[in-house]
Amino acid sequence: MATLLEVKNLKTYFYKKKTVIPAVDGVDLKINKGETLAIVGESGSGKSITSLSIMKLVPSPAGKIVEGEIILDGKNLVDLSEAEMCKVRGNDISMIFQEPMTSLNPVLTVGEQITEVLMYHQKMSKAESTKKAIEMLEMVGFSRAAELINEFPHRLSGGMRQRVMIAIAMSCNPKLLIADEPTTALDVTIQAQILDLMKDLSHKFDTSILLITHDLGVVSEVADKIVVMYGGQVVEQSPVYDLFDQPLHPYTVGLMNSIPTIEGEIERLQSIEGNVPSPENMPKGCRFAPRCSKAFDRCFAEAPQLKQMGNERAVRCFLYDDEGAKA
């Protein structure tokens, strides 16, 4: 399968007075054409900054990509100017943000927000772009699309606004769709509909998806592969079924154990003790060690590297070295 996006040793740092904050610290990931990759982890683990780095939307001058490559279809996005990136965003890469109400422009109608994308990237006329906007709204499930193009975002429900965001994102048939917590603000029934819609459109347009989420239940529905992030680093990567069958990293095990289940009786949900460390004050050694029940002396003194385990799996943990196995 051909590679669409490859991120190599991505480092995105923020600068606050004299403090350097390594929000993303050496991330590697790969997405093949037509594939869905999910990045999971708690809030503060670096998921959203990774996605903003790929789009080159890191807040500047406070934030900066200091090292690494972001290669989309053979083109390194890090080397592109802002003018060149404007042609990539919305055309080759589109993004669905977490909260559609703050992402949509409140003073423009739904139709205006779809047509402006088509007129800028596809050079369509007003009439052509309006026709295409109606088609896209019908495609994402609106039965009265011709009327809806004249509505303002505040007249729509959360689920409808998210469908409009998907219509905008897919209007130029992008190679990659980045979805940052696309179902967080929605109720469970609407979440399932949005996920099914994303899957259907991905297959129809042969679009790859990078899904950012903290919900492993969502991941099991749509993803082909999973990257688990913690403290700005990848701690585990795996095909989705292998990870659910046998999680390798203690952090992944903790995330899996915290998922509620309908089987059996459990009085309390398990949780991972402690909090995600602040990027300003990362612990020495393994970043998860202070919260890990399996940590031993080496974990607190030395930082583990991402170890390839075969079958497209990798883990950043000393438990899979000889010393760790003995410990």
Overview of this structure, please?
This protein is an alpha/beta fold and 327 residues long. It has one domain: P-loop containing nucleotide triphosphate hydrolases (Rossmann fold, 3-Layer(aba) Sandwich), CATH 3.40.50. The protein contains 13 helices and 12 strands. The protein has helices spanning 47-55, 82-88, 100-103, 110-121, 126-139, 145-148, 158-170, 188-205, 216-222, 240-245, 250-257, 297-301, 322-326; strands at 3-16, 19-32, 36-40, 63-72, 75-76, 93-96, 176-180, 208-213, 225-230, 233-239, 307-310, 313-315. It has an 8-stranded mixed beta sheet, with helices on both faces. α4 packs across α5 (126-139), α5 packs across α7 (158-170) and α7 (158-170) packs parallel to α8.
